[in-house]
What we know:
The chain contains 1 helix and 15 strands, in the order αβββββββββββββββ.
Amino acid sequence: EEFAAELATIRGRVDTLETDVAELEANQFSTTTKLRGVFDAHLVVPFGDAEVEVEGVDVELDEADATFEYRASLNFDTSFTGEDRLRMRLRAGDNSGSLANSFSGLASAGSGGPSDNVKLDDVYYSFPVGNRISAIIAANSVVTDDFVTSTIVPFDGPAVADGSGPQFYDLYDGGDFGAGINVAFTNNLVLDLGYSSAGSNNNASDDGLFNNNSYIAQLNFLTDGIFDAAVTYIGAGDADDGDPESTIAGLVNFDFGRFQVGGHYANTQVDGEDDVDSYMGGIALSDLFGAGNQFGV
Length: 297
């Protein structure tokens, strides 16, 4: 009786909460699946001319006009245990052509198919195996650096140009079937292993699971402090003349808080041709003029 007023107030709040919960349960999207949308947009203003090599001949390209490109993604993430994830992604976008003068174009543009057409871009299942091992099985879009714990360099994720990420990852076939594991020997030392093939759904002598393939092994040393590094080996199962056969690379990053210095060096053996060396280095400044911004060179 002493707390009758307070109890009445609580009863009213509980009734309201029960009504809201019933409404949410009746209209929820899924008990196991989360829907997340991502929109990437690029306003590109190029300057200067470019020179590219086409079939051994240097061709001058005129300066292009300003362009605007987009990419929209819908990710359906399903979990059955709370620690696993089944990812299915729908994606549409422009054909990434505004950086035609560059080697690799924009990092977050295009749909992987015809312009503005919706495509099933990702289908994979990742899950833990005990406390120290995680695994992934993919039906498409997973190859080389999709298997690794980290690409180490700070320019890979937020950069506008795809060339800001280590380019040697992008030289190899795959992207249909894929399978890999990540083994954490300690909290800092992680081994990544992955295998991917293109044309794995075609029953032909030059396709199937074991042709047009690539495999990767990367040993990572990751800390919460100043130093991250990795060594990488990538191989191709059936390289043709002019295709990469294997790559050995080293990646390093020094993190001083809001200031990072990182880069990589890679040596690639090419079938029937000389070896190819590639490298990249630069600095990244975090939270420049505001939280979440990054300036990179």
